[in-house]
Specification:
- Among the domains are: 8-19 and 48-323, 7-stranded beta/alpha barrel, CATH 3.20.110; 354-508, no CATH class; 514-621.
- Helices cover 47% and strands 13% of the residues.
- The chain has 28 helices and 20 strands.
- The strands form 6 sheets. A 6-stranded antiparallel β-sheet has the order 15-16-17-18-19-20. Strands 1, 4, 12 and 13 form a 4-stranded parallel β-sheet that branches.
- α10 runs parallel beside α15 (456-472).
- It is globular.
Amino acid sequence: MTGSNHKKYIIVHGHFYQPPRENPWLNEIEQQPSAAPYHDWNERIYDECYRPNAHSRLLDAHGMITDIYNNYETMSFNFGPTLFSWIEQYHKGTAQRIIDADKKSAEMFNGHGNSIAQVYNHTIMPLASRKDKLTQLRWAKLFFIQKFGREPEGIWLAETAINMETVNCLIEENFKFVILSPNQAESFRPLDHHSHWTSTAHHPIDTKRTYRIVPRDASGNQTTGGHLDVFFFDEGLSKEVSFMDLLKDSATLGNRINKCYDGTFPNQVVTIATDGETFGHHKAFGDMCLAYFFKKIAPKLDITPINFGYYLELYPPQFEVSLRNAHGEGTAWSCAHGVGRWIRDCGCKTGGEPQWKQHWREPLRNALNNLQKHIDTYYEASMSQIVNNPWLIRDKYITCDKTSWVGLKDILDTDAHVQPLEKDQVYVCMRLLEAQKFMLFSFTSCAWFFSEISGIEAMQNLSYACRALQLGIAPENQHAVLESFLNDLGKVPSNLHNTTGRSLFENAILPFYNHEQVLSFTAAVHRAITIKTGTTFNLFGYQIAIEQVLQQKPGSITYDGYIVHLDNPSSGETGVFQVLISHRDYAEITGWVIPYQDPGKLRREIPRPEVWMTHPAAKQYSLNNLFFISSQELESFILQKIAKDTGIRFTSWMKKNELELDFLSRLNIPVPSYCTAPMTYVLQSEWTRVCLMMCTQGNEDKAFAELLELNRLAKQFSLKIDTSEGAGILEELLHTEITHLATNLTAERCNRIRYLMNIVDRFDIAVSKSLLEDLFHPILYGKVSQLYNDVTISNKKGNTSNKNNNRELLLQLLSFARRMNFNTDSFQVA
């Protein structure tokens, strides 16, 4: 038992992180089939974890919502910068709730917010060079300041990997604390610096207090005047949260935490550290267990949630700790062999076949290290001609506005030899700095974590390396550097038969090396089949200007010739290509792409397609060469073209054969697919049309009747209608209606929303009700609560002027709230 004046503190830290997933040429995340039914893993984990933790449900015994709680207000957390940027781009509301939670916690904890920084792209710090370590920390700090509006106090180290050089860099950058595994501690002693060290081999470190790392050399002599404080998480408890069933019940979680306090010293802190994705993604409804623990269980057990920064202010460390292998490669929380998992076949792995080996890890790192030497050498030599300190500019680069060259110019001008810099000079620097960014991205730890180089994580890193080579090496030297890199990748074995890192790279990544030619071909295809009709448009971050200079149709084949200008304002990359498209309407599309180097000669030969095809610089392309995203867009365009005509024909066929089809359905014999397929298509199209019809107020009754008839026909013929398109329409409509309700509380709007939701329930339409509940929650506890207070005050004062109208509206709103699954017991209306 703890003493009467002893407080029991809890810190639950979530490390929220996903590796950067964007295709570096397209700046978009391509579809990831393994994340189905979602587009990609970011979207899937967002829906299962990041959003739910910002809107976690507390339910009563009947499953009604009593509150929606923002877990980020109480838990400690870090978000990987590239992940948070993605959330901010695609889900601004959730990003803002995360930022607001940090601000609220800072108000509660004397200026110490719950959020801490993370090394920028999750590189294993002990394996990085000193300058790369500093860049990772400086990028992390700049990003954090930009998003959270304050200096970060602590930082999450990728895989908690640390050695003494990492410690020195952290101190140099004014970070106050880190979180480590107790297995990374070698010994500890009181902070008087004179006591004997106690080895953790004989006496496990007590994780309920904080410790201090004092930088020392291998002989034990202190090297600097600074220090770094450490929280060691409770390993057993954290593993139970991560990999067992502790998140199934908040009372069980609370009791397990409560057993950790032993009262041997006052004000103990229990630290849980785990992947943030545990709360909802790895463990379904883990966010709800955490919310209920914070709101209900912890107060009952007299356990006080706190964050790292505030606890350190209240209770500074009294013990010094030394780290295992501090002057070597260091240690990490997810490898029993130091940091071997990210450099060699140490035996640690995740996934894959049992017989698979990880002999590929070391040669992959060697290949990337060798490429980085080339890129760093060229970067320093080229940038030194423009600025005084190229590496200082790199450290400042990450948060500059990359939509225009002006944002970078402001940074460059502070260190340029000659000011102001010209636009072309800025773009040279931008390409070199982007190469540095992608080169650092290629060392993201996930590539080595899993069991096989052909996994999406390792291939993503190789994509970044390829893009870094393309942007970061002089054109005349690129071939030699690429060949050297390919030779290195040829030494990287795969567990797949007859496969190496080189063959994987050449098949999946190297085609992107000619991305501007592919973009030119894509732009010309878009024009030839009229996906794009203008002379200028945007494509994957490039501004496209296209001029048609040839059109011939000798027989059934059409030849369209174009001059395509490409301009990427984010990198300064430009190109001009001559593109010939051969096609038979929408079939048999082939293209020839030629770098546009001799305008006069090419224009003289424009009327002759065969000259374009046989040009020595021409490269032939087919639809197989399109980026996958482009193929999807092309598919959608073609399907839309044929959909209308198909619908008309199939509808006419159904009407013409209505009696015969009805007769077939009554024979209790399966109707053949050549009948069910067109019927399914027609009913599905009609379903979508009716859902669109409900966007106009007043059509609800008519729409409901039509949906009933469509549903009857589907059942009669045992047809399965895909209602996903209609569901998307209704979800967006309900979202809009509830948003309007926030500004205009009326019974009429409530009734419309109620009716729409009844339709959703009646036909079991897959609409995300949790999103709608998230929207309504602030309305219930905002404007509805205010109306409740007004009615209550009016009742007490006997004021009857607006009493009856307001009371009636309030009753309807509370009825609607219950329809939205909210418990309204706290709103008692007399």
